[in-house]
Amino acid sequence: MDPSNDWKFTRREVLKMGAVSATALAVPGLVAATAAKDGIRSPVTAKVALEVNGRAQELDLDTRTTLLDALREHMHLTGTKKGCDHGQCGACTVIVDGRRINSCLTLAVMHEGAKVTTIEGLGTPARLHPMQAAFIKHDGYQCGYCTPGQICSAVAVLDEIRDDIPSHVTGDLTAKARINPIELRERMSGNICRCGAYSNIQEAIAEVAGVKA
Amino acid sequence: MKPFTYERATTPAAAASAAARVPGAKFIAGGTNLLDLMKIGVEEPAHLIDVNGLDLDTIEPTDEGGLRLGAMVRNTDLAADARIRRDYPLLSRALLAGASGQLRNKATTGGNLLQRTRCPYFYDTNQACNKRLPGSGCAAIGGFSRQHAIVGASKSCIAVHPSDMAVAMRALDATVETVRPDGSTRRIPIADFHTLPGNTPHIENVLAPGELITAVTLPRPVGGTQLYHKVRDRASYAFALVSVAMIVQPDGSGRVALGGVAHKPWRVEAAETEFPKGAKAVATRLLAGAQPTEGNAFKVTLVERTIAASLAEAKEAKA
Amino acid sequence: MKFDTPATTNPIDRLKVVGQPVDRIDGPFKTTGTAHYAYEQHEAVPHHAYGYVVGSSIAKGRIVSIDLTRAQRAPGVLAIVTAKTAGKLDKGKFNTARLLGGPEIEHYHQAVAVVVAETFEQARAAAQLVRVDYARSPGKFDLAAAKDSARKPDRGKSDTAVGDFAAGFAASAVKLDAMYTTPDHSHAMMEPHASIAAWEGDKLTLWTANQMIDWGRGDVAITLGIPKENVRLISPYIGGGFGGKLFVRSDALLAALGARAAKRPVAVALPRPFMINNTTHRPATIQRIRIGASKDGKIQAIGHESWSGDLPGGDPETAVQQTRLLYAGANRMTATRLAVLDLPEGNAMRAPGEASGLMALEIAIDEMAEKLGMDPVEFRILNDTQVDPEKPDRPFSQRRLVECLRTGAKRFGWEHRATRPATRRDGRWLVGMGMAAAFRNNLVMKSGARVRLDRNGRVTVETDMTDIGTGSYTIIAQTAAEMMGLPLDRIDVRLGDSTFPVSSGSGGQWGGNSSTAGVYAACVKLREAIAQKLGLDPNAANFEDGKVAVGQRSVPITQAAAAGDVVAEDSMEYGDLGKRYQQSTFGAHFVEARVDAATGEIRVDRMLAVCAAGRILNPKSARSQVIGAMTMGVGAALMEELVVDRRLGFFVNHDLAGYEVPVHADIPHQDVVFLDETDPMSSPMKAKGVGELGICGVAAAVANAVYNATGVRVRDYPVTLDKFIDTLPPVA
């Protein structure tokens, strides 16, 4: 962060500090920003209601809060991990309205009415989801930090294949997507495991999918 | 990240109008690139207009026999669409070669076209970058430039456009549809959409302030063998060193566009007349005037070899 | 307990629990998001504030002035700490550069301030308003350019010589003299460095991601100038370390300073794009290897020189280490040189020394075998040694490298390797096989533990040992279960708290053997205490199936704790067995790779590691350590490189998009074989380290496979297509 680059030129326009428009009121509960004299913008908060792991959550958040930070710092659901905060590692993977996404690259306020499933929503130590149990059986983790993201991703990957979503390694695009080891490896590639548990993770997913790794 | 106000737009025209009216406004769709850049202070919008709720997430046939892809169609859905897989497999292939499953679930058709470069100096606000801060210089020139442009670059900027999807669209002669703040619409051929850096690398496309992409249209299917060959060190989840989008017709004619070599998807129609002569001739025309750096001169060879491999693969597919 | 004579039969040898591939006991927590890492202490530390670090934008120079006025006025800001306002700070024993820079700047992204605010978003925004003016001074950033200025390092052995290398090399019939380079590497563990600090009066509690609790505690105390007793470190789960969390880093110090200034607990995590230049890395090396052999393949002379750089006061990458021990040969030399570089601090990363050294040496051995017209496996076997080649009267405690090589070759189908490179093709792919020897020294460290038997018959183990993904929780529980004759589910393990007995910590692959040996020692004491309580002869008592038995008399173990917990504490210390016997771990890596004949893209198809590393305490978690290390080795071979901007002095690709590490699609199914081995010289556990052995040699095995596929020898890592695409045959 170079403070001398405080002023920036973007593609479309020169930014002017701290203005609000009337249309901002389109979001209920939005508290308008006010411009301080020295150009420091005040935080803006907004209300967002969403469902997390089957439970209704109503939050009043700084608009800058990512879904990831809302989960971790506001709902205290710290199972979803912050590995890079830039969509480069997959540790923050959660399932939103049936699709896996990087929760670090989306704002919480953009998820009004969404249904979010985190690792805590898949299972608990006493009642493990089959994917969680398979990860334990196959030692599909080491430090455990990427693990919740891997598991959420793995659960969603099997759904994606069932939903006939192809991948980079799908041979015939006009045929229905299939589960096989190469497909699973490609599809899981958005979840980095620096401990290098990949080979075991593949065994775990393959077992849940009922195929050979 | 500076504070910003936030609204959910209800119609494309209203979104465009709001964007023009509110200083420092930006649209947010998938957010996968914009939020990334906001966190490190490269982008600092004062107001975000959420366009996810706009009714732009469908794929529909056009009167011309092509398809209109709504700007909010997610990359995953676009790649998985049966019509795209059947009639425009190049586009599916390019989309699926990009990013990760998670990112493709969020990223949109419109947003993908507007991706900003992955130049590491652009991403580091301590470094000189004419794209980020016009007039500050270009730290990539003379620096780490393995990923950078070999054609169409300038003394101001040697960044490349990172999109895979856009490369396929360029080969497919897609058209970008937009709405402007005054409610008027226009159609921009993809060839004219992205710009070269020249001495204004902060300008990356021809959109006017507040102008919103509403759709991308694909002309009637062109058939042929369609291949997207993305070359990278890591097997997945990596940006291209170079990529080749190719369509080869049964008669041996074809089209080719390149990714990872320029500030925009790179296509030189004249080069396509060289198809009968083979990869070297095509590559030579495509990369005429190339000025690679010491760090990326290998891309010239790599482009030619990847074109050759694609031509061979097309031949095999036909046989 | 002192370990100074070779281990004899002990309760661990029963192998009812130890040595079994049991699931990790922390698995149910890690897989459900209920394992709480350093930054996830909402229960213990409710309502903490957030700190965001400001890093230097120059590599070397001075801060001329810092203007905090705008940042201080930013919403939510509670405090800002800079070197000027932090009070007197010392430098920790284990740090080379200061964790809070100013006015002197030693490297890019050195922390210069921490901004504390109510929320993360506010702290981040305010940090961007801190204005720092710097005066740049010229620095040295280019290892190749600084090579000739490199000197003998102050610490460690810079030169070794046995016999007459020059004469031996000159007289050799077949010679190799080649230069190799390895780039700077980043640990890139998935959990960023993160800490939460809370002060109570003058006492500091730090929840922090740290591999070495006691080192960290000491260095926090030194840095802050407070008594060590006033510092508590808690680190129950660590999201990967690989050496990057051996030492206190800026997150911990700045959380402590921020909390003191804000008078509130403060959480600080290093943002990913900031981590790489702010923390440590594995330093780049330039290596020269000379090998001379007779025509029949006997090594006559072997020389290995290595150059690396670090900040003033830093240490070299000891890349020549294994060359002193791995192969026979009468005439030998090594030399280690260190240049001053003003890049971020170089330090330990997984298998420091050997990982880099074998990247070069095991290519050189492959090259030499080819020159000799020998099979690379046979060449290595021919030059095996059972004694320290520098001191022939000093044997290895165990050395089964030959068996690793033979077993691996057989299982992998090595006989199908094309002897002539670039002759195997599968469609568009050139296919090749490569292999390398693996070697990593075994280190032992003093380690303590406290064990407690309660009235429910549960045993709790407490030690400040850490589990960085290695499986410490599980193997410690297995050790206690074996020693006390209890099932695994009756053992509770509590780790990573400086109020527990000091352990070996996790580093240098010593943690598994050393920490369990410490638990062994404590359990021996607990057994004595229990036997005494039960009126049984401690020396004759057999602990099995929840009972303590002497002869016909058998008493439930719970009875000993009927009147209260029975507690014992001890540590394991080591004598000179490590001096009398060379203790090392061995292995062999086999790799099949294919190279796209057109583009030069490289993909790994098959991998096998055969390891001889003493007793394997848990084959499941040990295997994971090895496959993880193999994966990191593939990264080192094919993609990992911190690119230095030699003008500006920083690592340019400082995030996980720029610094590529392997993803799922890069890694095939991996096979690991452990030779059945016990090493009575290492500890009563008879185990040795394995987590670092797994990376040693992997990159060279990949590089050798690429050579076998393409016929092009790349000696500069990573082996990427740009380095050989010009030499590939025309695309058909």
TrEMBL record, chain A:
InterPro entries: 2Fe-2S-bd, 2Fe-2S-bd_dom_sf, 2Fe-2S_ferredoxin-like_sf, 2Fe-2S_ferredoxin-type, 2Fe2S_fd_BS, Aldehyde_Oxdr_Iron-Sulfur, Beta-grasp_dom_sf, TAT_signal. Pfam families: Fer2 (PF00111), Fer2_2 (PF01799). The keyword Oxidoreductase applies. Residues 46-122 form the 2Fe-2S ferredoxin-type domain. Keywords: Iron, Metal-binding, Oxidoreductase. This is Xanthine dehydrogenase YagT iron-sulfur-binding subunit.
UniProtKB/TrEMBL annotation, chain B:
It is an enzyme of class 1 (oxidoreductase). InterPro entries: CO_DH_flav_C, CO_DH_flav_C_dom_sf, Diverse_Substr_Oxidored, FAD-bd_PCMH, FAD-bd_PCMH-like_sf, FAD-bd_PCMH_sub1, FAD-bd_PCMH_sub2, Mopterin_DH_FAD-bd. Keywords: FAD, Flavoprotein, Oxidoreductase. GO terms for molecular function: xanthine dehydrogenase activity. It comes from the Bacteria. SMART domains: CO_deh_flav_C. It holds the Pfam family FAD_binding_5. Gene3D superfamilies: 3.30.465.10, CO dehydrogenase flavoprotein, C-terminal domain, Uridine Diphospho-n-acetylenolpyruvylglucosamine Reductase, domain 2. Signal peptide: none annotated. Residues 1-223 form the FAD-binding PCMH-type domain. PROSITE patterns: FAD_PCMH. Its EC number is 1.17.1.4. PANTHER family: ALDEHYDE OXIDOREDUCTASE FAD-BINDING SUBUNIT PAOB, XANTHINE DEHYDROGENASE SUBUNIT C-RELATED. This is Xanthine dehydrogenase YagS FAD-binding subunit. It comes from Luteibacter jiangsuensis.
TrEMBL record, chain C:
This is Xanthine dehydrogenase YagR molybdenum-binding subunit. Its EC number is 1.17.1.4. GO terms for molecular function: xanthine dehydrogenase activity. Residues 32-138 form the Aldehyde oxidase/xanthine dehydrogenase a/b hammerhead domain. The keyword Lipid metabolism does not apply. SMART domains: Ald_Xan_dh_C (SM01008). Keywords: Oxidoreductase. Pfam families: Ald_Xan_dh_C, MoCoBD_1, MoCoBD_2. InterPro entries: Ald_Oxase/Xan_DH_a/b, Ald_Oxase/Xan_DH_a/b_sf, Ald_Oxase/xanthine_DH-like, AldOxase/xan_DH_MoCoBD1, AldOxase/xan_DH_MoCoBD2, AldOxase/xan_DH_Mopterin-bd_sf, PaoC-like.
